Amino acid sequence: MNCSIISVGTEILFGQIVNTNTVYLSQELNGLGINVYHHFTAGDNENRLKDILDYALSKSDLIITTGGLGPTQDDLTKETIARVAGKKLEMHEPSFEKLCTYFKNLNRKMNENNIKQAYLPKDSIVLDNDCGTAPGFIIEFDGKIVISLPGPPKEMKSMFESVKDYLKTKSKDTIYSKVLRFFGIGESALETAIMDLINHQSNPTIATYAKEGEVSARITAKAENEAKAQEMIIPVINQIKNRLEEYIYSYNDEELVQVVAKKLLDEKVSVSFAESCTGGLIAAKLTSIPGISESLNRSIVTYSNEAKIEELGVKETTLKEHGAVSEETAREMVLGLKAATGSEICVSVTGIAGPGGGTKEKPVGLVYIGLAYKENIVCNQYNIFGDRNRIRNYTSMLALNMIRKVLEK
């Protein structure tokens, strides 16, 4: 099945909001084995939206629209879909009753234009909106399927859960995917390492993806049932593991911080940080995980030289001779942190995040990360490219990955 996604809203064309819906839908549809051929964006104009719908229907079996289901005059998505499908709009009583209840509970009068949301194309499958007032719908005509979802991402994602069940009924096969996540290798290097597998695998298929600081590989199999699809995927995963195991941090599509937090909690290991250029970012990532207080002791932001001296006992002579951004300073930071906290894992970070402050000898992006665990101390040097935000974020990921590796050993 081939799909086109149409995002409706002039505010998207004007750049007033970021369109995250297409990213989410494309990822979800890919996991269902549905090929996404096109992304379109249409303003709040019925004729232009009709032109895009006509074109998309000529190229795809499935059309998914987001947005334009609200109560105002410029919300024209369902009216345009009904026009293209040759269907009348009819009052859907359950949706009308839900609207009445919604406004009654708010103790507010329901305006006439809100009733518009309860009119839906004849013969359509109505999709309840558990997070808002605008119902979505599915309509089938001329061998095509059009699914219309609300624009707000929270409403769209909630509604799409029921859509997934519907789409699964349209295929006699079961689609199953497994996502491997990698850190420390780029997308092109990953693709090169498994190119022969990608080229010779039609079922399962392998697709690589990149996001800031990491890459992933989605292995998708199609079979008569999920058990068979899982069985087909295992040999492919094993081949990738044999080649790239050192870079794989998750076989279950987990974030790096989730993997590290789970290891810390499972092994009951305490951890503390002394952060300079990251300014508490590593601890902030970890504290997004519920229950991490069982492992996270503290994070000290020692941004200035005075803080490094007073909080961690870094020697003034070290700072004068080697500078704040140096292996020597990172080592003394982590030793001071170990002495102050007694945490089983201690991590120090010092670097030049830019955009200023760099020199020929110590350019922007130079970072040192120290780690003390049991009797061992390591201090790694990194040269990271990018702007200030990327340098800080990637440094925090490098620190988390160092923790993951020592715990795995």
Q: Can you walk me through this structure?
A:
The protein folds into three domains: about 1-170, Molybdenum Cofactor Biosythetic Enzyme, Chain A (3-Layer(aba) Sandwich), CATH 3.40.980.10; about 175-250, Alpha-Beta Plaits; about 255-409, Maf protein (Alpha-Beta Complex). It has 16 helices and 17 strands. α3 packs across α4 (about 75-85) and α11 runs parallel beside α16 (about 390-409). The chain has a six-stranded mixed beta sheet, with helices on both faces. Helices cover about 40% and strands about 25% of the residues. It has helices at about 10-15, 20-30, 45-60, 75-85, 95-105, 110-115, 155-170, 185-195, 195-200, 225-245, 255-265, 280-285, 305-310, 315-320, 325-340, 390-409; strands at about 1-10, 35-40, 60-65, 90, 120, 125, 135-140, 145-150, 175-180, 205-210, 215-225, 250, 270-275, 295-300, 345-350, 365-375, 375-385. By secondary structure, it is of the alpha/beta class. It is elongated. A hairpin with a 2-residue loop joins β7 (about 135-140) and β8 (about 145-150).
